[in-house]
Every structure is written in structure tokens, then in C-alpha cells.
Design brief:
The two termini are 13 Å apart. A 5-stranded mixed beta sheet has the order 4-5-6-7-8, covered by helices on one side. The protein is globular and about 50 Å long. Helix 5 (143-161) links the parallel strand 6 and strand 7 (166-171). It has helices at 26-34, 50-58, 75-82, 84-87, 143-161, 181-189; strands at 40-43, 60-66, 94-100, 106-115, 121-128, 133-138, 166-171, 201-206, 209-216, 223-225, 232-234, 241-246. With 249 residues, it is α+β, with helices and mostly antiparallel strands. It is built from 6 helices and 12 strands.
């Protein structure tokens, strides 16, 4: 089972080897995702208008939970496709979960609000017909708020999953080396294990056997090369995390 996350709208200014671009990067991102073997993919800060196109390109079923800055949809999505730099993050975002047919189909979808201030943060809860439950979340950036939201999210996700296996993943905005919240999630909810001590994106599981532990791609794996300039474009602001589990059915 693989999971990918990130914010992919334009290449950041990372140095002379990278370029800032101002066009829609859907095709490049979809091609990158299609080249990876995965059953379930979790995305945060995902452009809402990409849901159907990415599901079609991946041969997957989608669950989208809208997050912040979505007041003027679909107008902002149209501007985002035309001039990404003009609209920026005001195109809106979502936590979107994709499930390929080998793992699905999806039996139930829920959207949980974790907090409304200072910015709306949500969690997408997805139940598959196999019984596997998925929690896809993106919490606040301040450590104290992030820890509280993670605890609340884990409680809601555990209640949703009941005794079924649970995958709890996303952008936690907390590094294990700087917080004991991961120990608390393990003791209270049985969720293990974090990706790495210095990472913000994690895949925690309960009731699944970890066959390949969660690991982040190297930074260059999220890059493409512009054939016109030879410069790199970075497709995600976080290194994607991938893992494999057994016992999904």
C-alpha cells in the first residue's frame, strides 16, 4: 500500500537548478503518481478540481474532503488552471484519498472538522468494503495545536474504525524527535509507527502487519525536468511517504 502527499502547483525557487513555473502541473503529477505501485494514496493540500481527473488517470475511486479557502469554487479552480501564480493557495484545498480497485470499493465517506481557527483543518474518513478504514488529515502548524488535533483525530478515527484495521496518515506538522505525541497515539490508540524522527508526514497503522516500514522518498524523486530549459520543477512541498502492509482484507 502506498501513500503520496504534497502541494503541487508550481516549482519553488530552490536555487539555480530549479525554476518557478506558472502553468498547471496536473499532467506531470499524474504521470509521476501513475508510475508508482500503490493501492491507496493520501493527498493533502490537493487542488479540489483535480479529484476526478486524478482518479481517472490512476484507475481509482476518490474521496475528497474540502478544507480551507474553498468559498468561490469552481471559479478559483478555473483561475488556478489558467494562472496558478495569480490565485496561489486561494484556489482552495482538500484532503483527497484515492483507492484503486484492488483495494476498494469505498463503502463509506465522512468529513470531520478538526478545527476552524486560525485555519480550517479537516480529516477524511473512508471505509472500504474490505473493512479497512482510512484517515487522511492535515493538522495545524503550531506544535501544541497540532498535537491536540492529532489526538482528537485519532479518537474520531478509532471510533469510526471500531475493531477494523486503520491507516492513519497525512501531514502531522510534528516531528517525532520533538514531541511525545507519537508515543501517546501508540499507547492510547495502538497506532504505529512514525516515518522517521525528522519527518512531518506519517503513516500510522493499527491492525495491519507492516511489511515495508513507512519511508520518505529522496527529495529528487519528486522532481521533473523541464525539457525546454533543462531546469528542475519540484512537484511536492513534502517528500512522499510510502509503505506496504498486509492484512487489509
Amino acid at each position: 500500500m502506498g501513500a503520496k502527499k504534497g502541494n503541487w502547483r508550481r516549482g519553488p525557487r530552490l536555487g539555480v537548478d530549479y525554476e518557478q513555473v506558472n502553468w498547471d502541473l496536473f499532467d506531470a503529477f499524474a504521470s509521476k503518481i501513475a508510475g508508482v505501485d500503490w493501492d491507496v494514496a493520501l493527498f493533502q493540500e490537493f487542488p479540489p478540481s483535480w479529484r476526478g481527473r486524478m482518479a481517472d488517470a490512476s484507475g481509482a475511486e476518490a474521496h475528497r474532503a474540502l478544507s480551507g479557502r474553498n468559498w468561490l469554487q469552481p471559479l478559483t479552480s478555473l483561475i488556478g488552471r489558467w494562472r496558478p501564480d495569480l490565485i496561489g493557495s486561494w484556489e482552495g484545498g482538500s484532503n483527497s484519498t484515492l483507492v484503486r480497485r484492488g483495494a476498494g470499493p469505498i463503502a463509506e465517506r465522512r468529513r470531520i472538522v478538526l478545527t476552524r481557527r486560525p485555519e480550517l483543518r479537516v480529516m477524511a474518513l473512508t471505509r472500504l468494503e474490505s473493512g479497512l478504514c482510512l484517515a487522511n488529515l492535515h493538522v495545524s502548524t503550531k506544535p501544541a495545536s497540532a498535537e491536540q488535533e492529532l489526538t482528537t483525530a485519532a479518537e474520531r478515527a478509532s471510533d469510526f474504525a471500531e475493531t477494523n484495521p486503520l491507516l492513519f496518515g497525512g501531514d502531522f506538522n510534528v516531528r517525532p524527535r520533538e514531541s511525545d505525541v507519537f508515543d501517546r497515539l501508540r499507547r492510547r490508540f495502538g497506532l504505529a509507527r512514525p516515518t522517521a524522527p525528522d519527518r512531518l508526514s506519517h503513516l500510522l497503522v493499527r491492525g495491519l502487519e507492516i511489511t515495508d516500514p513507512p519511508a520518505a522518498w529522496p527529495p529528487e524523486a519528486r522532481d521533473i525536468v523541464d525539457p525546454d530549459t533543462g531546469l528542475k520543477i519540484r512537484l511536492s512541498d513534502h517528500n512522499p511517504v510510502i509503505a506496504r502492509f498486509a492484512g487489509m482484507g
